[in-house]
Amino acid sequence: MRQPACTNYEKPFLYLLIGSTRALLIDTGAGGIDVAAPIDSLLTAWRAKHGGAVRTLVVAHSHGHGDHIAGDAQFRDRAGIMLVPRDSAAVYAFFGFRAQRSDAVAFDLGDRMLDVLAIPGHEPASIAVYDRKTAVLLTGDTFYPGRLYVRDTAAFAASTARLVGFTRSRQVSAILGTHIEQARTPFTDYPVGTVDQPDEDRLELSRADLIMLDSTVRTMRGRFTRTRLPRFTIWPR
Ligand SMILES: [Zn+2]
């Protein structure tokens, strides 16, 4: 799902993955919009169609920045909903990461297995989620068609290497992040705050794009500089 641009220029993407016993919502939007009602109706429709017993909705975040957690209050203290706090300590405890560089952790939604990786660098609580059913890899603000803001360069370099390593032995149908800031014209992004993006790039990135990110990061050897690539820009802060 995507939050409409008219409600917030960030227009972030939200992802809902549904298994036979649990569902996982990744992110709650940038605020100023009802997120809970559409999620509730999607789950109700799913239960009706599949006769299912999706008993628990886990609400987690791609990372803890404000444009991805603003709708959290809509899910707090509701029966059947487990809201994972935004901070990295809570995220690590919930998914069972042992350290920043720990391996992927399996997360079972019931007949739908996910692999969750800690990928700090953009933000300490950043995670990636791989859906074995669709071979889609969700990368949050760490990797999307736009400005990849890097706060912790060492952690970011380790995380991109981890993503490349993780995908080496797996199919990847698409890599999906949480924004589009890029135009279809290569090396071109829309300025911060742009609402109307008529020539917007597509959302999907590929494993080849990920390898381009990782190899560019490697050549920087820890000294990050703002670097434009055809479909994204590495942007140290
Ligand atoms: Zn964001």
From TrEMBL:
GO terms for biological process: antibiotic catabolic process. GO terms for molecular function: hydrolase activity. The keyword Hydrolase applies. Residues 11-179 form the Metallo-beta-lactamase domain. InterPro entries: Metallo-B-lactamas, NDM-1-like, RibonucZ/Hydroxyglut_hydro. It comes from the Bacteria. SUPFAM superfamilies: Metallo-hydrolase/oxidoreductase. Pfam families: Lactamase_B. Keywords: Hydrolase. Belongs to the metallo-beta-lactamase superfamily. Class-B beta-lactamase family. This is MBL fold metallo-hydrolase. It comes from Gemmatimonas groenlandica.
